[in-house]
Amino acid sequence: MSGIDSLPSMFFMGLIGAYDVFLSNLIRLIFTARPELLSTSERNISLKDLIEIGSIEAARERIIEKKVETVIRKSHPEQIEWLAGKLNVPLTKDLQIWPEFVELCERRNLLTHTSGIVSAQYLKVCQEHGCSVEDTQVGHKLKITAPYYRNAVQIIREFGMKLIQVVWRKLTPEDINSADSELNGFAYRLITRRRYKAASTMLRFGLYEMKKHGSDAVRKMMVVNYANAIKLGGDRVQAAKILDDEDWSASTDDYRVCVAAVKGETATVVRMMKAVVESEKMKVEHFRKWPVFETMRADSEFASAFEQQFGEKLMVDTEARLADTTTTDDDDVAGAEEVGPRQNTETIH
Questions:
Q1: How many domains does the chain contain in total?
Q2: Cβ distance 197 to 226 under 8 Å?
Q3: What per-residue string of b and e applies to 129-153 under the rule 16 or more CB within 10 Å gives b?
Q4: 304-339 tens-digit pLDDT
Q5: Residue 68 belongs to what domain range?
Q6: How crowded is residue 297: how many other Cβ atoms within 10 Å of its Cβ?
Q7: Long-range residue pairs from 204-210, CB within 8 A, at least 24 positions apart, any chain
Q8: N or C: which end of the chain has fewer CB within 10 A?
Q9: Are residues 100 and 240 both part of a single domain?
Q10: Tens of pLDDT, residues 5-45
């Protein structure tokens, strides 16, 4: 029983440990891509050491590894402060989850060193970063509940993905279209797992908090997915406003039919769907699978028109489809089929 009681804390410490590994790999990648970011003294190596190491490549790896170890020994807030300074980019400005992220890391430290007993250091660091700890006192024992752990997973996921996006765009600004596509795909997979709030948070970040964007085609995919996440999350009015704020007049029919679906314009979807399939901009199966048509699939008018136009039922092999869409809380791993308006390959909607 004692061992069972320890499992929540073990899972939580493993979560923060996974983040630490992620950050180590991210820093290592940064210095591999941009070795000039190492200070002059850090890049220096004696001839004797170079001969001992055996090659320039191995020497570079040793220098980078040493620097990574130095950074990872810092506290979690200090690591992000160092990274922001090294890249000359703000990483915590307007980041609403920052206080919660700091509290997660400080709670991990308590579990590691004091079995969860609150210390003055924990309170000091949390207060410095705006964490809400008013009801917590030195000597209290903190536990990891199921809701706390679920929220921790969401915080780490959001913070990690935002770090990736900021660093990616900073190091290789010419690759911004790929960064946008990856962010859109990440949010799409969240939508397929009914994580609408998380998906809308990431898409809002990509659309409105990032100053630069890639192609207009990918950006508009993000807009449609953002509106759909908001709608499926329960706010149809705001979803419609997001779409109405965009000019879709020059967009191809595959985008326009998706916009109509999110806005609940059944007649427009029915009128356009056969044409977009015949023009090979979309496939019949997309009307069955894409999240933008989720509410359409519950509309009897749409289901009837689908069967009439394509000669097959809208919902087929119901049991298999339910098995395919069953989700768990492990929503940030296994991939989903990535489908949507065509660019070079099948992408996301």
A1: 2
A2: no
A3: bebebeeeeeeeebebeeeebeebb
A4: 999 999 999 998 764 444 445 444 444 433 233 333
A5: 2-155
A6: 16
A7: 205/162, 205/165, 206/165, 206/180, 209/94, 210/165, 210/169
A8: N
A9: no
A10: 788 999 999 999 999 999 999 999 998 888 877 655 455 55
